[in-house]
Amino acid sequence: MAKQSKKSSRSKPKTRPQAAKKAVQRALKRKPAQSKAPKARGKVTPMKKAVKHAAPKRKAAPKKKAVVKTAPKPAAQPKSAQAASSIAAPTRHIPIAVQLYSVRDDCKKDLPGVLKGVAAMGYAGIEFAGYYDRSASALRSILDDLGLKCAGTHTGLESLLGDNFQRTVEFNQTLGNKFLIVPGVSKERSATKASWLDTARLLNEVAEKLKPLGLYTGYHNHQMEFTPLEGALPWDILFANTCKEVVMQVDTGNALQGGANVVPFVSKYPGRALTVHLKEYNAENNTALFGEGHVDWGSAFQLCETVGATEWYIVEQEGFAYPPMECVARCLQKLREWGR
């Protein structure tokens, strides 16, 4: 019996501990791991990872921007040249002449050729500063043949005084000229306020004698007329003490060189700028042509064509970046561009 009991005890299964049972239960509940197949793109394999670390990917070079070619910016221009683009159309037509002093060396060599040349350029007239040993009748014949008018003569004050007066008048009458302009006076007639007043008196006397003949005298400025003298400008001394028949021939460039803009003077003495010298001025370029300097052309034109009562624009060029004849041609071309 004892032997049989022992055998039966071995056949019974052993009871598992409670902890083991719980572990089995947890294992049975755990979901099996799912292996994900690598994606076709974007998956970095170990080999690729190694390569990535060995040779990092280069950054893409920035795209080059398309180069758009543009025209170069124009060089900075003087104020007058910038203002020229807004110069108003003329309120009335004023013919344009050229002062022959601009081409004086050419005139000495071939005066008829010069006159023919300026007529071909389109000038309507000329102003004399010397007659190159020709008589008034000979000059008048050339002008008539070319269709040119005499817009004036620069005539020394002494030529209008005393016995010279009648000869000078006859010469200009033959030329067909009515403007006998004094281009400046001696130091004796301009050194003091009293001497300027005496010059004014003489011009009044000449103007009075010319008036019945339909002729005028006048005065052309340089720089000294705008330098104060005894508390006043010689220009004001002269024109405040002369009659309205004494022409105020303003020179735009000379005045600006003397430190004055002619525009206020045209307004101050209305109806007296019957002939006007158009001349550019640039302190840094003595060969500047129209539009290359600092003259306020828009205001000058506007006043000449209104209160100034201007009858002739007269081009004068004294510095030369080109041959003189070419310079006066370029001046006229610029005036045409400005509508004059």
Describe the structure.
This protein is α/β, with parallel strands linked by helices and 340 residues long. 40% of the residues lie in helices and 10% in strands. It has helices at residues 2-11, 18-29, 46-54, 79-84, 104-121, 136-146, 164-175, 193-210, 234-239, 252-257, 263-268, 297-304, 324-337; strands at residues 96-99, 125-128, 149-154, 179-182, 216-220, 247-249, 275-278, 312-315. It has an eight-stranded parallel sheet with strand order 6-5-4-3-2-1-8-7. Helix 5 links the parallel strand 1 and strand 2. Helix 5 packs parallel to helix 13 (324-337) and helix 6 (136-146) runs parallel beside helix 7 (164-175). The longest helix is centred in the N-terminal third of the chain and has 18 residues, at 104-121. It is globular and about 45 Å long. The N and C termini lie far apart (153 Å).
Secondary structure blueprint with pairings:
Blueprint: H1 2-11, H2 18-29, H3 46-54, H4 79-84, E1 96-99, H5 104-121, E2 125-128, H6 136-146, E3 149-154, H7 164-175, E4 179-182, H8 193-210, E5 216-220, H9 234-239, E6 247-249, H10 252-257, H11 263-268, E7 275-278, H12 297-304, E8 312-315, H13 324-337
Parallel strand pairs: 1-2, 1-8, 2-3, 3-4, 4-5, 5-6, 7-8
Helix pairs in contact: 5-13, 6-7
